[in-house]
Design a protein that fits this description.
Layout (H helix, E strand, L loop, with lengths): L9 E4 L1 H9 L5 H12 L4 E5 H19 L4 H10 L1 H6 L6 H7 L3 E3 L3 H14 L3 H12 L4 E3 L12 E3 L4
Parallel strand pairs: 1-2, 1-4, 2-3, 4-5
Helix pairs in contact: 1-2, 1-3, 3-4, 7-8
């Protein structure tokens, strides 16, 4: 479903929504910006997790590195690990957690129970680690709506998936 989630619903926001919004422009940037504006206006109750926040920061740091340092995405991690001074030049992504928090998005912590539950979720749905932890956090907080462009969540039958379709 497109991102036209009914007002006053709860929704978990996945990393790719933040990445599209903060890295833009992409074909999904406008839809993601509109979703986050509705959160800021208190028309939606939005959640994410510390794991999603870390994943978002990592991906935005790599995007920033490719642009500022003029390196390919495939070599960016190796380059940054071997050139720590270049890491210090990457400052744009650092502001993102404050911006996400300022929108009124509740950032849920990941705990050991979520990680243990994620192993069961992996076996049930064939999700990778980060996605299975995300689902465990969502289940613990009784969240059924997720804003994501990740097709892997489509295997989870009791989720309502909202995609940034233009």
């Amino acid at each position: 479903m497109p991102l036209d989630i009914p007002d006053h619903h709860e929704v978990f926001i996945d990393a790719n929504i933040f990445v599209y919004h903060f890295s833009g422009p992409t074909e999904y940037t406008d839809a993601c910006a509109q979703l986050l504006q509705r959160v800021e206006e208190d028309r939606l109750f939005a959640f994410t997790s510390t794991l999603v926040l870390a994943e978002t920061l990592h991906r935005l740091m790599i995007i920033e590195a490719t642009a500022k340092l003029r390196i390919g995405a495939k070599v960016a991690i190796h380059h940054l690990k071997t050139h720590p001074l270049d890491v210090k030049r990457l400052t744009e992504h650092i502001t993102v957690p404050v911006k996400i928090h300022a929108l009124g998005i509740k950032i849920l912590p990941v705990n050991i129970d979520d990680i243990l539950k994620s192993n069961e979720i992996k076996m049930e749905y064939g999700l990778l680690t980060n996605d299975s932890i995300t689902l465990a956090v969502m289940k613990r907080h009784h969240l059924r709506n997720i804003a994501t462009n990740d097709p892997d969540f489509e295997r989870v039958t009791d989720l309502v998936i909202w995609k940034p379709i233009e």
